[in-house]
Design brief:
2 domains, two-stranded antiparallel sheet, about 70% helix, transmembrane helix, membrane
């Protein structure tokens, strides 16, 4: 009976961990604002993405207030501003604020929707901080009267993806409870086991299998995420870069799980060998 309880508890611990680890990763790196900013912030240092984003942001600046006699001169000014935007010392802060605003819009609670503040897609870039930075630079160098908008939105993904963010916000935090349940189940398995090294071996083998399963699932999810065309080149580039960054970050978690599983399996084999050797010696 003890062997059955131990085996069942070990299997339960592995199954709970299979869901808990991805859920915890999603909560820490996607649902939580600070985690999302830390994950996506390096994208703003990519030269190609920087330039396209700056050009897209500057292109949205309203130049209707520019006098007609200067209208032919404004386009070269905008192009120069787009080229110089990423070199401004305020750019990193503007990019981080862009990520924070975008996260708040994309993960806003439906109850907080005040008739247009919440976006339709799973991820919406609000590049208003970058637009404001570009407009300020143009105004400083040319004296042209420019009034940047409060919001400048670039939708990433498809409208139905909005449901995904709502589900993530609701269910991802449950990963911590599942992780606690996995730890309790593993502890129960150790207490009930006749030979504890078999539980350690089962946990190690389970971790190796989970690492392989997570790697496969991550590849499938990444391919699905980048398969849809948003119709906006900047949005597509941001989506692709973000998916790649997320996959690389989660890969570190799967590698840690694989390394831990391998260590547990090796420890169990050594403990099992030592136990059998002591058993032979005592006869």
């Amino acid at each position: 009976m003890r062997s059955f309880v131990s085996a069942a508890a070990t299997v339960l611990a592995v199954l709970l961990a299979a869901v808990a680890v991805p859920a915890v990763w999603l909560d820490r790196n996607i649902v939580q604002e600070q985690g999302f900013v830390e994950l996506a912030a390096p994208l703003g240092r990519d030269p190609g993405f920087q330039q396209q984003l700056a050009a897209a942001a500057v292109a949205t600046i309203d130049t209707s207030a520019v006098p007609g006699v200067l209208s032919d001169l404004i386009q070269p000014v905008l192009e120069d501003a787009a080229s110089a935007l990423t070199a401004l010392p305020e750019y990193p802060d503007a990019w981080e604020e862009t990520l924070r605003r975008s996260h708040r819009l994309s993960f806003a609670s439906p109850a907080a929707d005040d008739g247009g503040s919440a976006p339709a897609s799973s991820l919406t870039l609000d590049v208003a901080p970058l637009v404001s930075l570009g407009a300020g630079e143009i105004a400083r160098t040319t004296g042209l009267p420019l009034d940047p908008p409060d919001q400048t939105l670039i939708n990433v993904g498809q409208p139905e993806h909005r449901e995904w963010t709502e589900r993530l916000t609701t269910y991802a935090p449950a990963g911590y409870l599942l992780a606690g349940g996995s730890a309790i189940a593993l502890l129960l398995a150790l207490v009930a086991a006749n030979r504890r090294w078999t539980v350690v071996a089962g946990a190690g083998a389970g971790a190796l299998l989970l690492a392989a399963a997570w790697t496969l699932a991550s590849g499938i999810a990444s391919a699905a995420a980048v398969s849809a065309d948003s119709g906006n080149e900047v949005a597509n580039m941001f989506r692709d870069e973000l998916v790649a960054a997320a996959a690389a970050d989660f890969r570190a978690w799967t590698m840690a799980a694989a390394a831990g599983g391998g260590a547990l399996l090796l420890l169990a084999l050594v403990a099992g060998f030592a136990t059998r050797r002591r058993g032979r010696a005592s006869r």
